[in-house]
TrEMBL record:
Name the UniProt record assigns to this protein: DNA-binding transcriptional regulator, MocR family, contains an aminotransferase domain
SUPFAM superfamilies membership: PLP-dependent transferases (SSF53383), Winged helix' DNA-binding domain (SSF46785)
Pfam families recorded: Aminotran_1_2, GntR
UniProt family annotation: In the C-terminal section; belongs to the class-I pyridoxal-phosphate-dependent aminotransferase family.
Keywords noted in UniProt: Aminotransferase, DNA-binding, Pyridoxal phosphate, Transcription, Transcription regulation, Transferase
Length: 493
């Protein structure tokens, strides 16, 4: 790994370090110290050179030199001629979580934002919205009719609340994927499915095929299990089948992870023909496929009808697990997801699930069972709002940042934007000082193939989108001048 890549990894760990108080060099020193305390930087580990770190942070080299001096004064780093600056061998991390930091990984800044809240910046780490109004109606309806019967329930359903499993089965039947309740496992969100699948399938040194780019939170789960990630490129129809076949043949993976419906972050909708081809390749090479359709409830630009999951095309020995969730379609606080697959595989996954939490909250499952039949109507209502916000954001970008390039997504919640001849990691540091937190493309692609991309959610209200683009334009102009930006402005929101 070259030193610039090392610097990039450190920049991701630092997060929104410029929003702290004090001189710039002390903010940087404090952020590095937190990484050492959290154990993200280990004793003896070499830090990036002053020049490389200054380049990615878009600060002067003197700022980094002063920060390293501050850390040396605190006994946290040592510098020796010819060997650079390293974390001091006497530096020891504090107990895990004692500093309030989320453990390291490519999605660290995203998950850290969930913990910390938005603060004084416009954070694009998450594409979230308030709850759909149908959720309030479902809560009132549940309280007024079925609550007594529900309270008489035992409350433990490791495989899922039976009425919800039946509702999920009916949902897939409408998508031409015949399903029985014993083929469904209810989970605490789609993210838990990823974790359970990783526990069951992955071992240190194994290979997982992923799309390039992909969702950082899932990539972190696979890495934590010791897997080696191999990326396969996308086109406008989804994952490239020619590259996928080659990866299956050459890499002998134990799992493939894809997002066919409104891919995150590109917003692409995998075509029916492409879904069928992925299922055929899965059967031919005997590779289990995990298809994540957590964005199913979002709007399609051209009103594309709901497509059958990849699992609907499974033939022979194809082992395909289909994931769904209510978090994106209805509300992030409704942490209910599910996975559909062969009954024998679901039975095995249920054993991991019961060991994890004995079962997801029954009240949430009962609400989901009521909402799932209305999912298409909920998506349609949200779609009108999202289309307006998407059009507004694209018009603003065309006017203020005409050199940026993107493809209007088929659906989902964000634009995937290519920055001309610019590292997104570098631009993210400049944007942060203008009050915007970006997720650079390097977090989505371990190969480095999307280092000049950023993800811009359009779920924010129109007035916030207007202010967002204004700040991004200021940051872009500053970066074009090749000069480090000064201190963080005062309170922003």
């Amino acid at each position: 790994m070259d030193r610039l890549t090392d610097a990039g990894a450190l920049v991701e760990l630092l997060g929104d370090w410029t929003t702290a108080h004090g001189p710039l060099y002390r903010k940087l020193a404090g952020a590095v110290a937190k990484c050492i305390d959290a154990g993200d930087l280990r004793a003896g580990q070499r830090l990036p050179s002053e020049r490389d770190l200054a380049k990615l942070l878009t600060v002067s080299r003197a700022t980094v030199v002063a920060a390293y001096d501050e850390l040396r004064g605190g006994g946290l780093v040592d510098s020796l001629r010819g060997s650079g600056t390293r974390v001091a061998t006497r530096a020891r991390p504090k107990s895990s979580g004692s500093d309030g930091r989320v453990p390291g990984g490519r999605a660290t800044s995203i998950f850290q934002r969930l913990v910390d809240g938005p603060g004084e910046i416009i954070s694009l780490a998450m594409a979230v919205e308030p709850a759909a109004p149908e959720l309030t109606e479902a809560i009132r309806d549940l309280a007024g009719t079925d609550l007594d019967d529900l309270m008489a329930d035992v409350g433990y359903h490791p495989r899922g609340y039976p009425p919800l499993r039946e509702a999920v089965a009916d949902h897939y039947a409408e998508l031409w994927l015949p399903t029985t309740p014993d083929q469904v496992l209810v989970t605490t969100g789609a993210q838990q499915v990823i974790g359970l699948v990783a526990q069951m399938y992955l071992r240190p040194g194994c290979t997982v095929i992923v799309e390039s780019p992909s969702w950082p939170g899932c990539l972190d789960v696979f890495r934590a299990a010791g897997a080696r990630l191999v990326g396969v490129p996308l086109d406008e129809e989804g994952i490239r089948p020619d590259h996928l076949a080659k990866a299956f043949a050459d890499e002998k993976p134990v799992l493939a992870y894809v997002m066919p419906t409104f891919h995150n972050p590109t917003g692409a909708l995998m075509s029916t023909g492409r879904r069928q081809r992925v299922a055929e390749l899965a059967a031919k090479f005997d590779v289990p496929v995990l298809e994540d359709n957590a964005y199913t409830g979002f709007v399609s630009r051209d009103g594309v009808a709901a497509l059958s999951p990849i699992g609907a095309f499974a033939r022979g020995n194809a082992e395909i697990l289909t994931v769904g969730s209510m978090a994106k379609a209805v509300w992030g606080g409704l942490r209910i997801g599910w996975v559909r697959g062969p009954s024998a595989i679901i039975e095995r996954l249920a054993r991991y699930k019961v060991r994890a939490d004995l079962g997801s909250p029954v009240l949430d499952q009962a609400l989901t069972a009521r909402l799932l039949p209305k999912l298409s109507d909920i998506a349609a209502a949200r779609g009108d709002i999202l289309r307006q916000r998407l059009d507004h954001l694209q018009n603003l970008l065309t006017d203020r940042l005409p050199s940026w390039r993107w493809r209007t997504p088929d659906g989902g919640s964000a634009l995937w934007i290519e920055l001309p001849d610019t590292s997104a990691q570098i631009f993210a540091q400049v944007a942060l000082r203008h009050g915007v937190e970006l997720v650079p493309g390097s977090a989505t692609d371990p190969s480095g193939g999307h280092d000049n991309y950023v993800r811009l959610p359009f779920t924010l209200p129109s007035d916030v989108l207007t202010e967002l683009v204004h700040r991004l334009a200021l940051a872009w102009n500053d970066l074009r001048r090749h000069g480090p930006v000064g201190e963080v402005p005062g309170p922003i929101i």
